[in-house]
């Protein structure tokens, strides 16, 4: 059977030619052609960009058998506060799609808006590849496969954009597409690729703006360019299963899906978070974690990583991981108890235990799982856990899962702890705390905590996620810092911070470790760490032991950075490598972080629920490999940004 491609183009006469106003096309059955033509003409006549001087309609028969049927891209929507944030999101998506310099692509969008079609760029060199540079490349010969005849006449930006994006994403050698609507009634745009899907962005320009544009990014041999152009411009395509439009709840979201939306409650939840300045957004990093990184297309100084000693990107660490990867493969294949155990796991445990002055150690997949595993093993119904009010979420989750009674004591207040411990003396219980608070950077008063635990017969546990590699002359942690001969009963740590790898561990006596292997559910029911991160951590631990000067440098850098901040009038102090810069208001903290990012500094805004409401802050983490001049410059900019946001009411 024949289908008909119906194309409409409307343009305006200008002094030196024609200016494009509007275009649309559909592929429909013969009977739907007249109605569609009438609707398209009326659409051309009533366009927001003004009355056309020319309206062309072209009707062309297309054999149904010649139509390629393609699946629609999966679709999702990203909300944002303003066009600047929308553009940042777009840059992040382009980076994830593999585009080397997303900012440069964004800069070319305005120029692309002058073309009738899309700009076609080499994704790496950004060389323009359109055969006709004034016209651009026009994606045509396409429609949704299931558009009802009645629908086909109407105007549906979302539907048309989905069809185009789905076709283009499936064109050979097309890496990604970015588009901002040039319609003054719309502020939306999207980034699309086969991997990302169609990601609609709520705001990419200001309302009423005629700016817009479309860029296709090409990565492939020049010899194959002709095939790509032929596919985009001439191959008839019907796009199947177009999903309902995702809503931002913004005024410009187009046609709502039919029927009740089962996911609407999530949109509402996200909107509430946005309104309170609590919506999170993940920045796409395009390089190893520091000290300078490529992030969303820009080079920034990283003050947000926990890779304190710069070991994540250390050549020796990477080489040892690569060897292990080659020898043992990418995945471990199973839980340690079934199939996944490697000699490397045992070796790392044998190294970690003495490092923490313990008899034995057990690896977990993450520090989070280590905390949950050990707390739920040690405590159960009828027991009592004394937990600092600012303890890390993984400790809190472990406490909750254990079903023990949880007694929360005031932050760092050993008198309060002792008073509460006295009330529960004689019961089986655990006193647990972060050794270094992850959001404030302050230290456990370990000698006092151990004294209280001993006096009332409770187990003691500290989580050294931010202490390992940071505290003590050789980075062994809080016990070394305080010059204690004895460690707490249980020490939890992570391989993912100063050790530059990933994974978690528990250190304690041999009985505890043996028991954990038989009882900790987060150990038993999870696939073992693969060889590469274990080998990386082994090497990192070796380096830490051989090069304690890294720990010293970290301490000196932190002291220097805090001193510079204080000279600028910002209260900055840290006993670890975490420097909290309290802002208070959630939105102000986010604004400050955003401004600093634009100025080339990446530090995170920390908000509820990571910290209490109204205690939002910037959190800077210092590294051993930060250069002094970088830290001085960072402090100067932070001082400026903090003064600025605090002045805004
Ligand atoms: C980061 C962190 C954890 C979790 O460690 P992961 O290995 O990242 O899961 C646990 N506790 C504290 C205090 C942390 O800061």
Characterization of the model:
- The protein has 21 helices and 25 strands.
- Helix 8 (315-328) runs antiparallel to helix 18 (531-546).
- With 649 residues, it is of the alpha/beta class.
- The longest helix is centred in the C-terminal third of the chain and has 20 residues, at 628-647.
- The strands form six sheets. The protein has a seven-stranded mixed beta sheet with strand order 15-21-20-19-18-16-17, sandwiched between helices. It has a six-stranded mixed beta sheet with strand order 5-10-9-8-11-6, sandwiched between helices.
- It has four domains: 2-63; 68-250, no CATH class; 315-546, Aspartate Aminotransferase, domain 2 (3-Layer(aba) Sandwich), CATH 3.40.640.10; 549-647, Aspartate Aminotransferase, domain 1 (Alpha-Beta Complex), CATH 3.90.1150.
- The model is unreliable at 250-258 (pLDDT under 50).
- Bound molecules: pyridoxal-5'-phosphate (PLP).
- Residues 366-368, 371, 392, 394, 434, 438, 463, 465-466, 494, 496, 504 line the site of pyridoxal-5'-phosphate.
